[in-house]
Amino acid sequence: QVRLVESRGGLVQPGGSLRLSCTAPRAIFSVFSPLDMAWYRQAPGKERELVAEISSAGTTNYADSVKGRFTISRNNSRKTVWLQMNSLKPEDSAVYYCFSSNDRGEQTWGQGTQVTVSS
Known about the structure:
It contains no helices and eleven strands. It is mainly β. The mean pLDDT is 94.
């Protein structure tokens, strides 16, 4: 099963920043043609939730809990999506997953990367 390649998360102090990136693995890069790309997260004991999404035209949508703090962006030629996370809070701690879908409805997920916000 092909998975998107995410950058490593990490441990960040409250109020700190972290940027995650995601792209297709080399094996499928040439045929990777996403429409929507997004970041989800899942904290222990909770359901996976949408954090932010961005269309191929650049239209964005954010969860209320991250509005004003997180920014999603993408580069279509590099087939990469980023999530800039600022003013991080302990409740942002979770495994973050990259997601993409194409015009055939095919969905691809990343392997997940742990983000921990703690002092």
